[in-house]
Amino acid sequence: MPVTNRLSGVFAGVLLFGCTASASDFDVVPLGVQGGLNEANLSSYLVSVAAKNQFLALDAGTLSSGIDSAFARNAFAEVAWQSGSPYSAKGQLLRDHIKGYAISHAHVDHIAGLAINATDDAKKPLYGFSDTLNKLRDHLFNWQLWPNFADQGAEFALAKYRYQPLSAGTPVNLDELGMRLTAYPLSHSGSSLSAAFLLQHNNAALLYLGDTGPDSIEKGQQLYAVWQQVAPLVKQNQLKALFIESSYPNSRPDDKLYGHLTPRYVLQELTVLASLVNPEHPDIALKGLKVVITHIKPSYLKSENSQTIIQRELTRANNLGVEFVFAQQGELLHF
Ligand SMILES: [Zn+2]
Ligand SMILES: [Zn+2]
């Protein structure tokens, strides 16, 4: 065989091996990554089994602007559009490729996009704890703040969205999506309930935490209980990514956290997880784990770019060797 052919054979082998080694389990398209102020970029993450292009939206703070950003960044290049559909590609994405919404809690920054796009959305399920779904039923989809686009509550129910309450720790099969969804309660400033969503496909898992305070401030064990659930998955190398909020920089006083985390508390909580994964060597237990930072709250202060500060604080304190990911709106991620 001529040298060039042999070489290209080697390269092909390397490429092939590279592809196999980097095969991902989940595709994630963040439609919104911030935790306030910017109504065009609030918490929402589309998750699909890799290359399936059938998404569950984790929270729905921003939909339309996020889908625009995702198109601009070519995140939906592999989606097969229906030329016979009366809807634009954007319309098809919203209506046909987002198969449902899992809402961590009913705060406006997690549901604004859902409310505004409900008029033109297709029929689909809304997953969440009863507490969250009841808030949507009683305070949003009630013909006072907004028409009743859901299937319960104030007459007349338009029944576009189907409330699907989740019980803590009980998995639900999302057959169409090829994923299993399990919710766990989180404490988001005392009386306010939030949720962690664990998505599983075969032997791969992805954990998304809605807004949450640290256990030490919330005076509870909710995060600890979540860490206990996912520690075995980390141990078996099944947890592909962990989405956790860091709303404020470390300078934020504890009594002004309102149920949120700062870089210091993110590391404190990850250290708890690490010690459950490997009690002897917690320092190496999470090495290489992809930790996606969500819900950074922008600031209008001239002196403060919270994104830069939070990024720096997390990076400097990263004694666990995790891989922090600062996701951009519309950027396709593979895990
Ligand atoms: Zn909140
Ligand atoms: Zn929030």
UniProtKB/TrEMBL annotation:
Signal peptide: 1-23
CDD domains assigned: class_II_PDE_MBL-fold
A Pfam family this chain is assigned to: PDEase_II
Signal keyword on record: yes
Assigned keywords, A-Z: cAMP, Hydrolase, Signal
Protein family (similarity comment): Belongs to the cyclic nucleotide phosphodiesterase class-II family.
Name by which UniProt lists this protein: 3',5'-cyclic-nucleotide phosphodiesterase
